[in-house]
């Protein structure tokens, strides 16, 4: 941790310690309710939990109108959520760390658990939230409490258990902007003295807010439904069994992409009759030649057994089977030019089946609380992807090649190699792939809390993980033009093929290459049009298609109760993320294997080299924390220094994704979470995160101009200052209880991503959400709400426009929405 951050953090804790002391009052009639968490795998208050964890209660989620976990970022400033080109491509970051979108072979660095069950891909957690108890966001690497290692943090979603005492239920109807319609219903109650059940369902529909001027279709819509059922068996005081089943379906046209900068290829797009809205990211308008398709379903069943072996020892078992299927087909060029085939232009069909099993044995003695666990993860992925040219791609390439449709250097080259005119880059040509991955993970973990005195506790934890992956990759290349080796053909060879003798100015004593310049080989000017060169399938005699990783991580923490109201802790922890495989058309042999590939006669014409996988990443965090709670104030402060060795970077370079390891990425910072309730009617929240991120070492980064060295630079997209302020006021009107709530979210200005020129894409967030509600004793509730009510505009992400060198595109945020929710609760 750099000295300025350390000094700032220590000063913050010292200031907080003395400031909080001024609120010391008699706690016989506390105004603030205790927040219960299970971040430590046992129920405890937030004050008693020496971890950096943020908790959002079910009441806060309802009043804020948080409908899925993407909206959590407005309540937890250390969390950032970015949705990309489809509903399922959503990335979660905690303290600036996180990846996992855009590639089925990459597990997220931020682990998502729903009722203790790991969701291996973020898309499988993007459902309308069911009956919730709370959501906990654990910051920093988590390994000794969760069998599935999470190198950046954890989002734990905890739903309400069925009741054994009384039958309750509710229905709600939400109507809002863009013809939003959301219907939810649930029922919960006992079937007998020992069996309880709950059943909930939801249907959500909303028109899009991004207009496709070509078709008239509005993108960014919502169209989803889901159902969730639970059974709770309590046959004795020692045994509890909880069975949960769920199903969710999405079928949406998402998402709107804006042109940020119109490069020289823009004229070629318009030259073949295509169109786009230039340099107007917040017009929420664009041109697509076909409507994107985003369909996915997720379903699963879990069974949890909790058995008290004795008064001091308990056993927990969680078994889960989950399935996830997804189909996407999006207009990859984001213009109305038919560059890609409308039926399978940029398609991806993915099936993921997962089996998990966790055992935890917990116990306590007079001086120690302990937990031992074992975890098994078995996942199978099968994916078919394709990128095929449309009717407009060849005319577009003719213009880029310096001619016009039907007459360009491409026609001359076709004639030279004896192929009919129009052969190159024709409709339906491209690249298709089938990939499969089997992943088996086993881990053993444990943690013990040793009571050194009535006020001091020492915590030791360890996790050993073994991860094995087996990958198969088969591709079929039909792009004839991209399989030509322009260096080998050479300009002199082309003249000879045309029946001409090359002149002296085109002859060279060395083979033509990029180094010898275009005067030697003018065909090199056509290389940028070779978007989809053929690939090498694997496993093969050089590449095994297997990874076998093992790692031991741990936690060391000392916690001390300064008083009954103030606790402090200091901790160190490590985390691990196994090898991630590139399951995309950009999965190509490593350059280090070039000689072996050629020696084994595996090379294909015009083969280029990139990466097959990214090696494991290992995270480390050092943290100093303070937690305090008085009658009217609760305060959490964390000062930390966190780093990831071998951070798995997945950067879009204009034609595909470059998956590679950064040498080291680090961030030091301070997090402050203050809750204040001076009266029974008012409660305020102020949460602030200050970060100082850095690429300590990243010499092989893929940038807009090729491979570059980002060492010593700041990673883009990570805000140095994030702030959330919330105020809620309770009041009465006649026989109704009411509330008014306002939220403000701020993030300072930063460049969005590393692969666009400086000044092209920046983000600064100033978002205000608000709601007001009334509730009657009859169970009727009305809530009027608005999100982003000031129409704050910022970019979620940005990237080089595919097949449009010099142009850049970005994803604008969602504009203002508002609505009315009517709910009825039944007892």
How does this model look, in words?
There is one protein chain. Helix content is 8%, strand content 49%. It is mainly beta. It has a single domain (3-351, 362-392, 453-484, 530-826), classed as Maltoporin, Chain A, CATH 2.40.170.20. The chain is globular. It starts with a helix and ends with a strand.
Task: Please describe the structure with a list of short key phrases separated by commas or semicolons.
827 residues, mainly beta, Maltoporin, Chain A, 22-stranded antiparallel barrel, five-stranded mixed beta sheet, globular
Please specify the SSE layout and strand pairing:
Elements: H1 3-21, E1 36-37, E2 44-45, E3 53-57, H2 58-64, E4 79-83, E5 90-94, E6 110-114, E7 117-119, E8 132-139, E9 153-159, E10 168-176, E11 180-190, E12 195-206, E13 210-212, E14 218-219, E15 222-233, E16 239-252, E17 258-261, H3 266-271, E18 285-286, E19 293-308, E20 313-329, E21 346-364, E22 368-388, H4 393-400, H5 409-416, E23 430-451, E24 456-477, H6 486-497, E25 546-561, E26 566-577, E27 580-581, H7 594-599, E28 613-614, E29 617-629, E30 633-645, E31 648-652, E32 657-661, E33 664-676, E34 682-697, E35 701-703, E36 706-708, E37 721-733, E38 736-751, E39 762-776, E40 780-787, E41 795-800, E42 808-812, E43 817-826
Parallel strand pairs: 6-9, 13-18
Antiparallel strand pairs: 1-2, 3-8, 4-5, 6-7, 8-9, 10-11, 10-43, 11-12, 12-15, 13-14, 15-16, 16-19, 17-42, 19-20, 20-21, 21-22, 22-23, 23-24, 24-25, 25-26, 26-29, 27-28, 29-30, 30-33, 31-32, 33-34, 34-37, 35-36, 37-38, 38-39, 39-40, 40-43, 41-42
């Amino acid at each position: 941790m750099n000295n300025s951050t350390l000094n700032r953090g220590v000063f913050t804790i010292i200031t907080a310690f003395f400031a909080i002391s001024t609120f010391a009052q008699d706690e016989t009639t506390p105004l603030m309710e205790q927040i219960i968490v299970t971040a430590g795998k046992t129920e405890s208050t937030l004050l008693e939990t020496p971890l950096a964890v943020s908790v959002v209660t079910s009441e806060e989620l309802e009043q804020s109108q948080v409908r899925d976990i993407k909206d959590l970022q407005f309540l937890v400033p250390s969390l950032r959520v970015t949705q990309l080109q489809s509903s399922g491509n959503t990335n979660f970051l905690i303290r600036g760390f996180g990846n996992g979108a855009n590639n089925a072979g990459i597990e997220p660095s931020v682990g998502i658990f729903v009722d203790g069950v790991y969701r291996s891909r973020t898309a499988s957690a993007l459902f309308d939230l069911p009956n919730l108890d709370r959501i906990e966001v654990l910051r920093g690497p988590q390994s000794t409490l969760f069998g599935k290692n999470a190198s950046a943090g954890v989002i734990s979603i905890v739903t309400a258990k069925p009741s054994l005492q009384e039958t309750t239920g509710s229905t709600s109807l939400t109507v809002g902007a863009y013809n939003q319609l959301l219907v939810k219903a649930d029922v919960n109650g006992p079937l007998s003295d020992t069996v309880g059940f709950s059943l909930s369902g939801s249907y959500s529909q909303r028109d899009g807010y991004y207009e496709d001027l070509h078709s008239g279709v509005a993108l960014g819509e919502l169209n989803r439904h889901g159902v969730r059922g639970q059974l709770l068996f309590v046959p004795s005081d020692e045994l509890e069994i909880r069975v949960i089943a769920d199903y969710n379906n999405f079928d949406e046209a998402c998402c709107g992409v804006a042109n940020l900068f119109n490069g020289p290829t823009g004229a070629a797009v318009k030259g073949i009759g295509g169109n786009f809205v230039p340099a107007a990211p917040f017009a929420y308008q664009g041109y697509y030649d076909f409507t994107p398709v985003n369909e996915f379903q997720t379903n699963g069943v879990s069974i949890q057994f909790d058995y008290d072996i004795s008064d001091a020892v308990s056993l927990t078992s969680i078994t889960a089977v989950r399935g996830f299927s997804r189909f996407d087909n999006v207009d990859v060029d984001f213009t109305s030019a038919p560059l890609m085939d409308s039926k399978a232009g940029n398609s991806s069909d993915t099936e993921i089946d997962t089996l998990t099993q966790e055992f935890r044995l917990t116990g306590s003695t007079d001086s120690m609380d302990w937990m031992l666990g074992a975890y098994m993860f078995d996942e199978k992925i099968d994916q078919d992807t394709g990128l095929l040219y449309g009717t407009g791609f060849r005319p577009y390439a003719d213009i880029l090649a310096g001619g016009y449709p039907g007459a360009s250097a491409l026609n001359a080259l076709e004639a030279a190699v004896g192929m009919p005119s129009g052969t190159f880059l024709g409709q339906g040509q491209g690249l298709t792939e089938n990939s499969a991955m089997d992943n088996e993970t086993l881990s053993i973990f444990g943690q013990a809390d040793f009571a050194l005195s009535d006020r001091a506790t020492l915590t030791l934890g360890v996790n050993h993980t073994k991860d094995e992956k087996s990958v198969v990759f088969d591709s079929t290349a039909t792009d004839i033009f991209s399989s030509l080796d322009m260096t080998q053909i050479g300009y002199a060879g082309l003249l000879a093929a045309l029946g001409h003798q090359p002149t002296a100015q085109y002859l060279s004593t060395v083979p033509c290459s990029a180094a010898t310049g275009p005067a030697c080989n003018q065909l090199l000017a056509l290389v940028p049009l070779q978007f989809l060169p053929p690939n090498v399938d694997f496993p093969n005699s050089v590449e095994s298609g297997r990874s076998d990783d093992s790692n031991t991580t741990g936690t060391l923490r000392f916690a001390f109760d300064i008083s009954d109201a103030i606790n402090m802790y200091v901790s160190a922890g490590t985390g691990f993320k196994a090898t991630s495989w590139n399951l995309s058309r950009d999965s190509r042999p490593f350059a280090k294997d070039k000689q072996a590939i050629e020696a084994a006669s595996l090379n294909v014409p015009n083969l280029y080299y990139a990466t097959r996988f990214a090696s494991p990443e290992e995270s480390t965090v050092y943290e100093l924390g303070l937690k305090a709670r008085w009658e009217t104030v609760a305060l959490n402060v964390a000062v930390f220094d966190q780093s990831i060795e071998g951070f798995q970077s997945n950067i879009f370079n204009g034609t595909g994704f470059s998956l590679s390891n950064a040498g080291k990425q680090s961030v030091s910072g301070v997090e402050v979470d203050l809750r204040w309730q001076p009266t029974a009617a008012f409660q305020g929240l102020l949460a602030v995160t200050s970060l100082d991120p850095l690429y300590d070492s990243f010499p092989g980064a893929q940038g807009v101009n090729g491979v570059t060295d980002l060492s010593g630079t700041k990673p883009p997209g990570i805000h140095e200052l994030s702030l959330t302020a919330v105020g809620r006021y309770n009041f009465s009107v006649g026989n109704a209880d009411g509330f008014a709530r306002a939220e403000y979210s701020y993030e300072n200005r930063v460049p969005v991503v590393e692969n666009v020129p400086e000044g092209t894409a920046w983000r600064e967030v100033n978002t205000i959400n608000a709601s007001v509600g009334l509730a009657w004793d009859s169970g009727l509730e009305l809530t009027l709400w608005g999100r982003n009510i000031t129409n704050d505009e910022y970019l979620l992400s940005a990237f080089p426009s595919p097949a449009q060198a010099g142009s850049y595109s970005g994803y604008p945020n969602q504009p203002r929405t508002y609505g009315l929710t009517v709910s009825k609760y039944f007892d």
